[in-house]
Amino acid sequence: MKRNEPGKHDDALRKLLKEWRTDASLARRFQESVWQRIEHAEQAEAPAAPSVWTGIAQWISTMLPRPALAISYVAVLLAVGVTAGWAQARQESARVRDELGLRYVRVLDPYLDPRK
Amino acid sequence: MKRGVFILVLGVVAAAAAYGCIYFACTASARSLQRSDKPELAWLKEEFNLSDAEFNRVSELHAAYLPQCRDMCRQIDAQNVHLQKLLADTTNVTPEIDAALADAARMRSDCQRMMLRHFVQVSQTMPPEQGRRYLAWVEAKAFLPDYGMSRTEN
Lengths: 116, 154
Description:
The complex is a heterodimer of chains A (116) and B (154). With 116 residues, chain A is mostly helical. Chain A has a domain at 67-116. Helix content of chain A is 72%, strand content 0%. Chain A has 4 helices and no strands. Chain A is rod-shaped, with a radius of gyration of 40 Å. The model of chain A has no long low-confidence stretch (mean pLDDT 85). With 154 residues, chain B is mainly α. Chain B has 2 domains: 1-35; 40-142, Up-down Bundle (Four Helix Bundle (Hemerythrin (Met), subunit A)), CATH 1.20.120. In chain B, 82% of the residues lie in helices and 0% in strands. The radius of gyration of chain B is 25 Å and the shape is elongated. Chains A and B meet through α3 and α4 of A and α1, α2, α3, α4 and α5 of B.
């Protein structure tokens, strides 16, 4: 199994590289241009600063599924719903009762009766 | 991510459901009053904790009062038309206008007396504490300092 004997391949490669000779000369400022290309590539690949939405999405996918946080989140929203419903209902009931009380007086009082 | 979004949506749905359930449960009584045959009397029964017997007696008094009230409305309307006609036909305060104004004042006084008598009768059919509360409430509504001044009709 060749895959189980990497040493042999490395040795062969090293030997081949030692024997390899080339007469080609490097381009002028080759090294500098290589570093410039590396620098440009790194800049292009640098991740953008995370946006608020990315942060929220990250939080939703990583933090929210934690049982304690999930239960707290649902419980808080339930409490908000119950409180808002109760407050709105109380206001609406008071409005209806005021209206009916006024209607009672209007039915009995000719000077408040909005007839034409 | 899917699990997180599911929990997010679940929270919002739970809040909306809780809001709806509580709102409809807490306004059920008010909606039931509005749907009744005579909402103003149904309101009176609930507001002053009347028993069925007390409510029946109040309803009888109410039904007996309404024809008198309608008759008074007709007289007031006729008197207003008469006064408007007199005012339109003259630029002076004539004896006829004086008499019409006096009639209007008398009519208002009669109307207030009739209402007050009815309110007292109704209050006497209620338990004493509720009767006092009813009388104080209805007098404040029907005998305000600006009585009759906030009418929108003409």
